[in-house]
Amino acid sequence: MSDNTAHDARPPYLRHHFNSVEQQADTSTFAMWLFLLTEVMFFGGLFTAYLIYRNWYYPAFVAASHQLNVVWGATNTLVLIFSSFTMAMGVWCAETRRRKGLVLCLSLTFILGLGFLGIKTIEYREKIEKHHVPGFHYSMQSFLDPQSDPEVYAEYQDKPLQPDMAVHTEVYFSLYFLMTGMHALHMIIGIGILGFMILRARAGAYTSGHVTFVENFGLYWHFVDIIWIYLFALLYLISRHA
Amino acid sequence: MSGQNEHAHTIVGPRVYVVILFALLVGTALTVWASFVDLGFWNPIIALAIATTKATLVVLYFMHIRYSSRLTMLTVAAGVFMFLALVGMTLADYFSRAWGSW
After folding, report:
1. Which residue in A39, A229, B43, B98 is deepest, having the highest Cβ count within 10 Å?
2. Nearest chain B CA: its distance from A68 CA (Å)
3. In chain B, what residues touch A222 (CB-CB under 8 Å)?
């Protein structure tokens, strides 16, 4: 299939249907961005649903968002920003052929990713304990009688919601779990790929001139970071004063 | 053979990444601080403006768009435009026709 005598100037990673390494790299970057645009549309639908329901059931969404802990949310934002930084440094290490540096950067990104999921688990557990997971066991107690939830009441002094508005807090938590859950799924997939990349990087796979895989994974990881930047603002921050 | 290819691909270095990291940390601190101040109507707008600034920095520098080919820039711009058009039209539809009827 390959004709080595005719193509001896071509590096082994240059596929035969491309003219040059540059063309191959441009093509894969373009394709990666097209994939990310489909992801933008996917999360865009969720964001739009959130904005519409927030306007419809505004008091319910404000009260429900007061259940989120800004400190955990901000900590996770910092964790993800640092992981984006270590990922970007990893791409640089691959480009400049630093094998040990690349393994270190990928490992740090891996650990920070796990740290993010750990904090998310703490937050989810609190929602489970308070019966704020939508479904048969959902409880509106915190919203019908805010003083029954002393920690949140101490911070916000929310007034009780009428029962016909309090039911809509369940919509907030549905969107909360859908959006953060889809984001977490992207994190889990990313961490899995990172584990694979760390093993390959140790063997020197990405530090011999062919960095496309690391670069494109970096794009994916930064995209997931951007989604969280918006989730943090929309879910945790914008309803603190309302 | 690599001579002509290497200069086509800009390698973004640690200095840029550190500056952007610092900017993102400042942005996060700023947006958390702003959420504790009661600015009424402006709270969500400021939060989204800071988030968009942070996202733009990530796209331009961490994702290398500032150093990319025209094709890649156009792809990203088309995506942003399409996203804004779809979200904007959907929201305009809901807010103009169904406002108050829930």
Report:
1. A229
2. 13
3. 58-59, 62-63
Q: How many CA atoms lie within 13 A of A110 on its CB side?
A: 14
Distance, CA of A232 to CA of A56 (rounded, Å): 21
Predicted TM-score of the model (pTM): 0.92
Where does the pLDDT of residue B100 fall: very low under 50, low under 70, confident under 90, or very high at 90 and above? low
- Give me the domains of chain A, ranges plus CATH numbers: 47-237 (1.20.120.80)
pLDDT of residue B101: 63
Which tokens belong to A33? 């961005």
Half-sphere exposure of residue B69: CA atoms within 13 angstroms, side-chain side = 15
For chain A, the first-to-last Cα distance in angstroms comes to 67
| Cα–Cα dist B86/B92, whole Å | 10
Interface test with A, best of B63, B70, B81 (most A CBs within 10 A): B63
ipTM: 0.91
Tell me the average pLDDT across A49-73: 95
Cβ separation of B1 and A9 shorter than 8 Å? yes
A143 in Cβ contact with A161 (< 8 Å): yes
Spatial neighbors of B11 by CB under 8 A, at least 6 apart, are A92, A95, A96
Which chain A residue has its CA at the smallest distance from B19's CA?
Answer: A85
Where do the structural domains in chain B lie, given as residue ranges?
1-68, 69-102
pLDDT tens for A120-151 read: 999 999 999 999 999 999 999 999 999 999 99
Query: What Å distances lie between residue A43 and A67, A97, A99, A220, A233, CA to CA?
Result: 23, 35, 35, 14, 15
**Nearest CB neighbour to A222, from listed B47, B58, B68:** B58
Residues of B in contact with A55 (CB under 8 A): 94-95
**A10/B21 touch (CB, cutoff 8 Å), yes or no:** no
Neighbouring C-alpha atoms within 13 Å toward the C-beta of A188: 10
Contact A25 B9 (CB under 8 A): yes
